[in-house]
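Q: I'm a student working through a structural biology exercise. My instructor gave each of us a protein and asked us to get a predicted structure, then write a short paragraph describing it. Mine is Small CPxCG-related zinc finger protein. I'm not confident about reading structure output yet, so if you can add a plain explanation after the tokens, that would really help. Here is the sequence I was given:
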Amino acid sequence: MSLSTLLSDLFSGSDTGTELPDANADSGEGISSVTVVRECRHCGTNVSAGTAQCPTCDSDEIVTYSIE
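A: Happy to help. First, here is the predicted structure for Small CPxCG-related zinc finger protein. I'll explain a few features afterward.
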């Protein structure tokens, strides 16, 4: 799945394998939101936490991005 598809799905409210962790209450900077995206570096497919190999292309290059 491409980043543009992910962002479209994110804003439309559908589930694409992204996570929204709880805001850090100790930060003292108010409420912040972080989206965690895990995807295959080879083909861009979104995967869930703990996935070691892409189900689409069998690559083991899984990366994690935190978007604030």
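A: Here are two points you could use in your paragraph. The chain has one helix and two strands. The mean pLDDT is 78. It's a good idea to check both against the output above yourself.
Q: Great, thank you!
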